[in-house]
Task: structure prediction
Amino acid sequence: MMLLARIVLSVGGSLINPGKPDVEFLKELSALIKKLSKKHQFAILCGGGQPARDYANAVRGFGGNEFIADEAAIMMTRANAFLVASALGEIAYPSVMEDFTNAAEAAAVAKDKIIVMGGTIPGFTTDADAALLAEKIGAKKLINLSNIDGIYDRPPKKPGAKKFATLTHEELVRLANEYDLRMAGTNFVFDNIACKIIARADIETHFIYGKDLAQVEAAIMGMKHNGTVVKG
Result:
């Protein structure tokens, strides 16, 4: 059996559920993954998006601490993961993974299935979870799909913001340290812990606007795309 290249897809919650589940997007993404799964072994890490933030804020409103708020958000990431697995159908591993060890075991045993995960433990973002999943299963490529089309030299909405075509891991860590303030509403496109994990593991990472599936396919296939590539 041919050894397939392992790729982790980090799918932002804003793409999966921007207010309600985006069924058409999930169908189209699933069709692309199915088509390309003959040459690649995929694992998918799902974010929580606005529903996760809403639930976390509700918990805070009830007087819950940040640990409990994180737990609520994690539940929503797993609900999103369930949606993605449902869209994939029989090609998805039959249960949503909740920890890295089980995910790695499933990836090793069920090579013809796609592993789907949500968040893991309070205090970690799904960015960090995606980076750790890639490191754990030995994936040398991580593709981050979000509603932002790459890495910019400043927040993309600021005047004069310029997108990078390529960055080194060191340059990405430096940007994350500047702009990821670890405060609600100030998050960088990929948090600084995640950036450090992909740097130490030397994981090539691509940042793509997730709704542009032609660009997503190009990143998976190792072709040029209009996002940002981080390596070296």
Q: What stands out?
A: The chain has a mean pLDDT of 93. The first helix runs from residue 13 to 16.
